[in-house]
C-alpha cells in the first residue's frame, strides 16, 4: 500500500464549478499535512497547510480527518488558472521528510 | 532572492557516463533535498541533508551520491548513468518556523539517459 494515495484524475470541470479531492495516508504517526500545486513541467509549490480544525484560504478549503487518515481539498468557483496537478503531502520521519502522493490532475474548461 | 537554483536545466547522457547536478539556495535553510519525479510515481526522495556536513539516504538512493558542500549548496552525482535514471530531478530546501513548514523547490533538471 502506498503511503499517500490520491485519485490521479483527470477531473474535468467547467469554470465556476466546485471540485473536491481526497487523499488517504497510511502512517498514523504522520505529523503535518499539506497540499502542493504543480503546473505542467514546473516545480511543486505549497498551496496550503492542512490543520486539524480545517482551514480556508480564499476559494480553497482543506480538511483533515486523523481518525480516518484522510485529507481533502475543496476548490470553489473554479478558474481556468486552477488547472494543475494537486499533490497531497505528508510530513513524517521525525519532521525531516515529506512523502508525496502521485497527484490529482484538474482541468478547468470554459 | 533567487530561491533554489539548479543547473543544468536539461541534460542528455549516454549509459555509463557520469555527471553532477548542482543545487544552491540563498534562503539560509538548514535542510536540503534531492527528489526524482517519474510519471505515475510521484516525487521520491533520493537523499537529504538535515544540516551542513550531514547527509542521509532517502527512498531511492542507489546509483547516486551527494555532497553538502556548504550551507548553500547540495550536489547530486550520478557515477555511471543508466536508462532507469531518466527522470526529472528536483532540489528543495526547507524553512521551518513557528508558522509552519514549507519546502521550496528548484525548477528541475530534465535528464535523459540513452
Walkthrough of the structure:
The complex is a heterodimer of chains A (110) and B (114). Chain A is mainly beta. In chain A, 0% of the residues lie in helices and 55% in strands. Chain A is globular. Helices cover 0% and strands 57% of the residues of chain B. Classes of the chains: A mainly beta (110), B mainly beta (114).
Tally of contiguous helical segments of chain A: 0
Between the first and last Cα atoms of chain B, what is the distance in angstroms?
A: 36 Å
Radius of gyration of chain A: 13 Å
Would you tell me the overall average pLDDT of chain A? 93
- The tally of strands of chain A reads 11
Question: Can you count the helices of chain B?
Answer: 0
- The parts of chain A where pLDDT drops under 50 for at least 5 residues are none
Annotate the secondary structure layout.
The complex is a heterodimer of chains A (110) and B (114).
Chain A: E1 4-6, E2 11-14, E3 19-25, E4 32-38, E5 45-50, E6 55-57, E7 60-65, E8 70-75, E9 84-92, E10 97-100, E11 104-109
Parallel strand pairs in A: 2-11
Antiparallel strand pairs in A: 1-3, 3-8, 4-5, 4-9, 6-7, 7-8, 9-10, 9-11
Chain B: E1 4-7, E2 10-13, E3 19-25, E4 31-38, E5 42-49, E6 56-57, E7 64-68, E8 74-78, E9 87-97, E10 100-105, E11 109-113
Parallel strand pairs in B: 2-11
Antiparallel strand pairs in B: 1-3, 3-8, 4-5, 4-9, 5-6, 7-8, 9-10, 9-11
Keywords for this entry:
heterodimer, A: 110 residues, mainly beta, 0% helix, globular, B: 114 residues, seven-stranded mixed β-sheet, four-stranded antiparallel β-sheet
Short description:
With 110 residues, chain A is an all-beta fold.
